Amino acid sequence: SYELTQPLSVSVALGQTARITCGGNNVGGKNVHWYQQKPGQAPVLVIYRDSNRPSGIPERFSGSNSGNTATLTISRAQAGDEADYYCQVWDSRVLFGGGTRLTVL
Amino acid sequence: QLQLQESGPGLVKPSETLSLTCTVSGDSISSRSYYWGWIRQPPGRGLEWIGSFYYGESTYYNPSLQSRVTISVDTSKNQFSLNLSSVTAADTAVYYCARQTFYYYDTSGYWEYYFDSWGQGTLVTVSS
Asked: Looking at the predicted structure, is the pLDDT value of residue B110 above 90?
């Protein structure tokens, strides 16, 4: 069955650029969506359809998807960006990646 | 403004049925503009999709849970419910309801689904 692979953790210095990857077989042929989840809160959609930002999501959040890897990029990382991030696709069912904990140093 | 609110018992005994309700305000679950679904998250772990429905047409479930899950709808109250039978400790989780946007790409036959609004979640513990 199809699987999405995310790194368990990513660290980024304050003000720098964080990149969180989501790997899957030919994931570039699917539409990837990204969610941010802060401790004790429900997930929030931050990127849909690979690279689109919902209303209210800062331009610092961007996404790309090609080949076997989709990437969520967070520019000028802030302390408030510390959270778990999940990628998600549709493959005959809704499928989430395992999640990545982003730490801002 | 769209709001989703989960409700139900916070404690369920093993082998019994977990029942939760999602009350929606700000949108109609029978409008046929969105799917509506359930997702859960065991403590300290990742997200797992449970199932979703499109009013008047289709309901589909995660194959790993399909034999134990039922999603039902009460349009008079603008609510939908989750029943999960024969629960064990492994079903202990925060349960979320969510609105699900969908799109069908004619040229490729590809479906796209993602969750654009979530409830706050409710913790259900399975324990005797």
From this structure: no
